[in-house]
Each structure stands twice: as structure tokens, then as C-alpha cells.
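Let's practice the habit of predicting before peeking. Look at the sequence and jot down your guess about where helices and strands might fall. Then scroll down.
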Amino acid sequence: MCPCSLQALLQVDLKLHDLGVNDTIEQVRALAQRTVTDVRYPIVKTYTLDAIWVLYDRVLRVDPKRPDDPARDRFLLSKGHGPSAFYAVLAAKGFFPVAWLDRIATLESPLGSHPDATLVPGAEMSAGSLGHGLPLGVGIAHGLRADGFPDSRVFVLVGDAELDEGSNHEAIAYAGAVGLANLNVIVADNGSATHGWNGGIASRFEVNGWSAAHVDAHDHEALYRSFTTSHPDRPHVTVAAHRP
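Done guessing? Here is the structure:
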């Protein structure tokens, strides 16, 4: 789909949809359930939605009317193989019309089974192979500080099994060593990691100089406290545990 046709589709749909109507977690949960893109990973939306919702509803400084604001916060969905929760929240917050959710992964849709940053309004990275989001987050956090936006935060959502990727080992060690205080990671922990870590996931970050919190993946207040905790001299990780 070329940019011109995407823009035309967006303009047509905006006329049909009152943006900002779906602004409760119950409504957004219903939006996530009506999509079919997570056929291979149907439970992903059930344990990532709460964290993404709390971020966009209460934490992130982002504006769908100014998606390219250089001072905005950034959210990177590294765990991109289950994007229904992410798409539902973006639609609810007005980045694109809710009607788009009904034609995900069709030929004419900008919403694919993995988010494409060149097509999805509000998506900061294209997700495919696991292991790329955290290294990208490190680079973006560095770039924001270099460009004079030290208060702009970067949040990266990764999966616990994704931490088996070697690129994440390096990113965790480096970010802690240089004290990237504007970097935050959310680990969606469903107990699927192959190798694990002695002492648990949080200790893996802490030994590399991060601050850390372990919370229930569905506890909104605990998520909010962790996302907004002060960590002025180091990056921070929230391990959001989901156990069916």
C-alpha cells in the first residue's frame, strides 16, 4: 500500500469514527478480542493488554494529533508477534479508526500480523524477529539525550523468552553500565523462557545496574507505580508476571 492510499483510507475512516470513544479497559479488551491477527498466539493479548493500556492511558506523553513530536515518549513493541492488544489501545486512543481492527492482515489493511512502523500510525518500530526492540530502545534513549530531550522516556515491551536472544544480553549490560535513566523495559513474563535466570528475571537486570520491580501483569496500580518510579541514575525494568 502506498503512503497516498494509506492517507486516503485514514481520512475516509476518520469521518466514520468518533476517535477517543473507547476509553475504558473493558472497551479496549473487547476491541482486542474482536481482532484475529493473533491466531498463532491467541493468549498474548490477554497478558500484554493491561501493561500497554496503563502506559497509554496514564503514563506516556504521546498525542495522536502530534505523532511526530520530537519530545514525545516512545513505546516499542518488541514482542510484535501478538499485536492485537497494541492495535486495540492505539485505536482507542485515536491513532487510527476502530474500524481498521476488523480487517487486520487483509491485503488492503495497514495493520499486519506484525506492526509495520511505515504503515501503522503510532508504531515506533517494525516488529518481526525477536530480540531487536531493546537494542533499538537503547539507541533511541541515547539519541533523545543527545538531541536535548533527556526527559523523553523510552518504554520497550519484551517477552521473557525473548531475553534468550544474545542481542538483549548486550543491551541490558550496556544500558546499565552507562546509566540510561530514560530507558524502561517491561518484560511480559508467562514462564516460557528456555533458559531462565538464577534468582529470577529481575535479578538479571539488577546485577547489570538496573532498578527493578516484579508485579502482577494485571494489577494496574502496581504497573503504574513501577512505570512511574524514580530511577534518576539507571534504567528500570518492570517484570509483569502472568500465570494462567
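How did you do? The beta strands are 74-77, 154-159, 183-189, 211-216, 236-241.
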